Amino acid sequence: MSAKIIEKKLIRPPDVFYYKVSAPLISKKARPGQFVIIRLNEKGERIPLSLADINPEEGTISLIVMAIGKTTSEMATMKAGDEILDLCGPLGQPTHIEKTGKVVLVGGGFGVAPLYPIAKAFKAAGNEVVTVMGARSRDLLVYEKEMNAVCDRVVVTTDDGSRGIKGPVTAALEQELSKGGADLVMAVGPAIMMKFVCRTTEPFKVKTIVSLNTIMIDGTGMCGGCRVRVGGETKFACADGPDFDGHLVDWDMLLGRQKMYVAQEKESFEAWKKRHAHAVSEGE
Amino acid sequence: MEEKKKPKIIPAKTPVPEQAPLARRSNFKEVSLGYTKELALEEASRCFGCKNRPCVGGCPVGVPIPEFIAFLKAGEFQKAINKIKETNLLPAVCGRVCPQENQCEKFCTLAKKHEAVAIGRLERFAADWERENGKGGTPPLPPPTGKKVAVVGSGPAGLTCAYDLAKQGHKVFIFEALHAPGGVLFYGIPEFRLPKDIVRREIESLRKMGVEIVTNAVIGKLITVDELLDDYDAVFISTGAGLPKFMNIEGENLNGVYSANEFLTRVNLMRAYQFPEYDTPIRVGERVAVVGGGNVAMDAARNALRLGAREVTLVYRRSEVELPARKEEVHHAREEGVRFELCVNPARIIGGNGWVEAIECVRMDLCEADESGRRSPKPITGSEFQIPVDTVIMAIGTGANPLVPQNTKGLALTKRGYIAADEETGKTSREGIYAGGDIVTGSATVISAMGAGRRAARAIHKYLSGEK
Ligand SMILES: Cc1cc2nc3c(=O)[nH]c(=O)nc-3n(C[C@H](O)[C@H](O)[C@H](O)COP(=O)(O)OP(=O)(O)OC[C@H]3O[C@@H](n4cnc5c(N)ncnc54)[C@H](O)[C@@H]3O)c2cc1C
Ligand SMILES: Cc1cc2nc3c(=O)[nH]c(=O)nc-3n(C[C@H](O)[C@H](O)[C@H](O)COP(=O)(O)OP(=O)(O)OC[C@H]3O[C@@H](n4cnc5c(N)ncnc54)[C@H](O)[C@@H]3O)c2cc1C
Ligand code: SF4
Ligand code: SF4
Ligand code: FES
């Protein structure tokens, strides 16, 4: 099944894009915390992307993608009306949503985007939802307005202090936990950030769920490429996850395995940039 | 068939032209070039046309072997292929990948004292002849019955079931999780053994018969089997045995350790061998160890050579005679330079900075098979040794993927997590749900999966026609 891009926006210059994609069936089935796998064209690779919004009435899903390499940059050159050759999903287990009391969501960079449907769901389940979101500087924050609309409170941090509290998200999280505690913490973002979030929450003994971003291919449990160690057991992030108890995750293995193809990814990106110098310079 | 005078015995198979081992190590083209017309006629002449047809009994779908070979002898190639197709939907595939030495050829009269008739090669010849001469048509279809069947998974079991049901006038939809149909034929078995073009064409002819194939459709996630039953009159589950096994030894999660499924999927489905023209990367390095002894292990080892590995070692814990792979693949792998370390088991994988550096193995005692069949090999203490490698590929088997069972209420499973289904009909514990192929038997063969698809199609047709 291919899927048409209905809307595309640059939401954080220069490299974070919002896509609304027509996916009637997926939108009916998808739950917060799940993801899709896309392949842009015949020669393309399969990459996983989280659902940043799910709209069954409209029959659409939204994706927020940061252009960091070959495939994501190629996607950045696509426009509304273009077709994504393959769209497969919803994949993974939905985030476990229940009424627990106070939930603190932690998002780093554009990792805030996939937290948006999760925040809505926790809120709808009757929780108090606080989001702590951080970025290097104010220009790099995404989804602040959207999160404000669905959360009880949003705490913003920037490394350079250009907006909100100056410092890393973990510092703001620590403050939040010392002040008011929490019944559940959930973090989405770069692996290194999630690792430090887990370190921060450990002394508070707050259960911390993380959404792991391993390298994936099929996304159905067939290849084992996405394997992670959780609590001493091998799990497949695409089928058993992507959500896991962050205090049980072997972070060093995850961080190591994400680097498996760094050299090839660079080669592929450079070759693509040469071929598409024109499209890239146009930005959008 | 008349046998007036005793036929002359030609003891050995007519050799088949192949790419030379050294040349083929550096390309992904098919290894065996197949018989020419002349060679096929020569080989066909070795067949006695035995009246008791022992060979047919060895074929899981009962291909009428003496009859099709008789047509070949007479130069009636179209009739030969039509004969085969009476029971075998994918002769171009089976002729190439069936473990003939355990099936049809094992029971050939000639095999008692000499080499069996090369049934597989002849079958392939007939199928290739038809394709090359553009004769492959689709069978005439009866008027539509108005019944709809959903097939889950597009491997050989699903394709065969779809074909047989379409032939009865039922409307068939195949749902496939990946972006390309074909199952293991497409993502697992390599190009140099089974050109993907052949698989594509077979699937094209199914489409011409009105079978719809929906790709990127993960059943259990996008649509559940129960939801399918709302829209379809019956469901056939043929999702294969795709869950890769690991050994749970130290170092298995280092960078550079692949499951064979991941390795082969990257190469076949994603065409990593054409990186960076195709986006998906793969890393093999200089030295590779493959753990296992089946077709999957041979395929991984030979792919690794073709991707530029200098040294590929296959590590298998039992002895030569027990290698489960097709004999031809073992032979081809040896010719291409794959090293075999037999009666050896991996103990751990050693790494530095997160990357594989060596595999430590231990030699096994009681490894040779005895009269009673398999003994259980035991490690010999102190026999540990290391093979320096950049890549380790685990090809030690697969299990049942729990995705469909988990999301289908009341579907009875076996102890090992496979779907419990009647062997003759594919009936499961749920009315209207049938299953067959590797998801029922565990990893088996292409032709046995096809046989299961065919038997289930027969039962589904009966069910749809109101005979229960
Ligand atoms: C469950 C999940 C959800 C994700 N959600 C989002 C999202 O909502 N938005 C977003 O922008 N990104 C998301 N990602 C990450 C995204 O998949 C990668 O950024 C993308 O694959 C990079 O591809 P590239 O060719 O542009 O870059 P590359 O240069 O090929 O890769 C850059 C980095 O991305 C990772 N990566 C590469 N290939 C893959 C792959 N096949 N599968 C997974 N990771 C890979 C690697 O760590 C790599 O170093 C998610 C990843 C996972 C596993
Ligand atoms: C590398 C390799 C080499 C082999 N070599 C040989 C050989 O030489 N000779 C031989 O006879 N046999 C060989 N085999 C075994 C043979 O390929 C299998 O026994 C056969 O393919 C099983 O067929 P199947 O239809 O049951 O399943 P498969 O071929 O496994 O097909 C199952 C299909 O279902 C799809 N699927 C899974 N889950 C879902 C879902 N939830 N929703 C939708 N679709 C789904 C999968 O993506 C797949 O396409 C080999 C196997 C491998 C892996
Ligand atoms: S289908 Fe396989 S087993 Fe049957 S005759 Fe052909 S090669 Fe032999
Ligand atoms: S058993 Fe051998 S010789 Fe006899 S009919 Fe079969 S293939 Fe021919
Ligand atoms: S991506 Fe292949 S098993 Fe998870």
Structural summary, described in words:
The complex is a heterodimer of chains A (284) and B (468). By secondary structure, chain A is of the alpha/beta class. Chain A folds into two domains: 104 residues, Translation factors (Elongation Factor Tu (Ef-tu), domain 3), CATH 2.40.30; 110 residues, Nucleotide-binding domain of ferredoxin-NADP reductase (FNR) module (Rossmann fold, 3-Layer(aba) Sandwich), CATH 3.40.50.80. Chain A is built from ten helices and 17 strands. In chain A, strands 12-11-10-9-13-14-17 form a seven-stranded mixed sheet, sandwiched between helices. In chain A, helix 3 runs parallel beside helix 4 and helix 5 runs parallel beside helix 6. With 468 residues, chain B is α/β, with parallel strands linked by helices. Chain B is 32% helix and 15% strand. Chain B is built from 17 helices and 16 strands. In chain B, helix 8 links the parallel strand 1 and strand 2. Chain B starts with 20 loop residues before the first helix and ends with a helix. The mean pLDDT of chain B is 92. At the A-B interface, helix 1, strand 8, helix 8 and helix 9 of A face strand 5 and helix 12 of B. FE2/S2 (inorganic) cluster (FES) binds next to helix 7 of chain A.
